[in-house]
User: What shape does this take?
Amino acid sequence: MGIAADFVLIVVAGLLGALLARALKLPLLVGYVAAGVVVGPYTGGPTVGQVHDIELLAEIGAALLLFSLGLEVSLRDLQPVRRVALIGGPIQVVLTLLAGSLAGVYLFGMPAKESAWFGSMIALSSTMVVVKTLAAAGVTSTLASRVMIGILVVQDLSVIPMLIILPQLNTPDDILPKLAQSIGLAAVSLGTVVLLGTRLLPKLLRRILEWGSQELFLVAVVATGVGVGYAAYAVGLSFALGAFVAGIILSESEFSHQALSDLAPLRDIFGLIFFVTVGMLFDPSYAVNHLGFIAVGVVLIILGKAVILGVIARLFGYVNMAPWIIGLGLAQIGEFSFVIARSGISSGSISKTTYDLALTCTVLTMAVSPLVSAAALPLGRWVRRRRKAVTVATPVAPPQTFLDDHVIVAGYGRSGRAAARVLRAAGIPLLIVEFNHTLYRDLTADGFHGIWGDITSAEILHAANAERARVLLLTIPEQNTIHLALERSHRLHPSLAVVVRATREHHLPELRRHGVDAAVLPEFEGGVEMVRQALLRYQHDDAVTQEAIAGLRREYYGPATQT
Assistant: This one.
């Protein structure tokens, strides 16, 4: 069967590796890389035969992976944390790259050229791992999480100059003219792509959608990603780099979310092939023979990145636990490092030894990343107790009007917006706390008083005059954020009534244990209102309907539910 048999072997091995990784609570791509080691040429058992053909498919996988990551890059996400992201992010990349390069030369004995590649790999953190870890913990809207996401966006964008500059190190003679030529060519080519992409691509996709063909829309999206990638390759740039730029262009259009949704299954399959081929190039005997060497590298990478990122966060004014969360949360090596590593070894820029070291450190730092992230808060609190640190107050601009016996609405999304309008119509004083700067501008434009900030911050709660409020409405969906806000608001005002939004039924008992006065499931309430409207069409007795609904709410929320 040739390449078909290899494809089946890779997919089945990737599935088994992913199942094992899931059972061990590791990122799926760790399982894919492990599967590649098993079916690679350095281990016994089933082995991929058509390695070159599979590597060509892996190039498409890398392009689709980077294209989808480009679709997820939202420059609007940088707005609330633009200062630390746009200034601190590049500083972190440069400092980590330099530290990694020095470690490569003086600790691992690499040539200077290879150490630059090694430093570039470890300078990047994993967008996939971090975002999934934050989502699983329910903390994607906290201040530290926003900073992490902003820095990740800048790190992803830094891959563009890396993929342009690093290959030029192969020919150090007259490197400056060659580098200037490459940068100029890249600027012209990418500028042309951006111009055509922003002018023509939206019109093309809009016309396809008018025809009503979802299949043709998917084909157009994939053709855009790989087509721009090939155009970049044709002018001497990286195929994956072109696909990433295409994704960034499309991310700023109204089609980005649907394009990402349609592309996801195809990206996941080809991404599996890419990560399996990454593992196929790894020699496990290297890890066995250099356990101490690798352990030192992993520890130094995690500690070095954590210190650099934590110090940068502190210098940009983030205090208390934020530097610990940001530093340890971004201490792993990212998936873009696989792309750089494959580019380096395929072009002969790095040796097999450097590749094996970088790959091993990447996989191990990804694998332990959830544990390292979870240690941030306990470790930070322990250090503060040892140093008897005093919490640094963050200056927050209070609202212009003094509020007393008011309602604090946390979040100005759909639920928060509806709650705020009803409260205003009822003449009840309210204050809105919103961390998303775009939504904050919306609430001020709508005539509401608000504070831009993180509701889990004691300083923000104090600025919102939580000590004198009557009710706190937590309309945000992230459960861990709700728990933190509950703890800190009750510390300021133990008798404050708190009403929260629950996202799952099994969250209700836990929320009651944390002392909420009422929890609301939007989907459940939507279903109740829909059936009430249906019963009205049957002219059903309203008193009976209300009693039935009240009984259902008591059954769902518990006997203490007020109806």
Notes: Confidence is low (pLDDT under 50) at residues 389-395. The chain has 25 helices and six strands. The first strand starts at residue 407 and ends at 410.
